[in-house]
Amino acid sequence: MSQSPETSGNPSSRYLQGWKAINSLLAEGRSWSGFERNCCFLNTRSRQFADVSSVSGLDFLDDGRAIAIVDWDWDGRLDLWFSNRTAPRLRFMRNQVTTNHHFIAIQLEGRTCNRDAIGARVEVDLGERTRTGLVRTDSSYQTAGDHRVHLGLGPLDVVPEVRVTWPDGSTTIRNDVEANAIIRFDHPGSR
Questions:
Q1: How far is 63 from 36, CA to CA, in rounded Å?
Q2: Which stretches of 97-146 are assigned E, i.e. beta strand?
């Protein structure tokens, strides 16, 4: 692609030729990015990630644009929605992996802060360590996934403490929370 124009006036002919070439490729059904396979990386809890694209089955040759991560069937396992420029335009990958590990999902509702509690911080005490999640509006490029905070607990089936720090700085704490559930927290402020 040619460089973007330096001024807001008429773009150069070289710039316009670049856009014509791209649009021609797209009209022919060719890939924007050269048929690059999707990538999937595994957090190894070190300074490196492992490329598990092929073994995960997620290395589609689709001309991918976005991915949304959401617990679609409310079973505690995060599922994936892929959006592609080419067919299939939408692809759903249901997570059917079975393990002995547990999860917790925290659903927040703001009252004096924003309704979706965007910006809230959830900390789950796992004894030896703490897992942290943030309520965000984005999950990846051009997508908004689930606003619930999903955290893996490993073999732990009761969480000693869940602490929510709301966007306004107030906190809510619950102790001895059962795993494998969606737990709802309402902001302590009044409406």
A1: 7
A2: 102-109, 121-125, 130-134
| CA 98/CA 52 separation, integer angstroms | 18
- 60 C-beta neighbours (distance < 10 Å), count: 15
CB 164 within 8 Å of CB 122: yes
Segment 109-146, tens digit of pLDDT: 988 888 889 999 999 998 888 999 999 887 777 777 78
Tokens 């917790």 — which residue? 104
Tokens of 106: 């925290």
Phi, psi for residue 188 in degrees, rounded to 5:
-70, -15
Please, are residues 189 and 113 in contact by the beta-carbon 8 Å criterion?
Answer: yes
User: DSSP 3-state assignment of 18?
Assistant: helix
User: What are the tokens at 97?
Assistant: 């992996």
Q: Identify the helix (H) or strand (E) that includes residue 174.
A: strand 171-178
Q: Which amino acid is at 146?
A: D
Strand partners, 152: 103
- As beta bridge partners, residue 59 has none
Hey, is 26 helix, strand or coil? helix
For residue 3, what pLDDT is reported?
Answer: 63
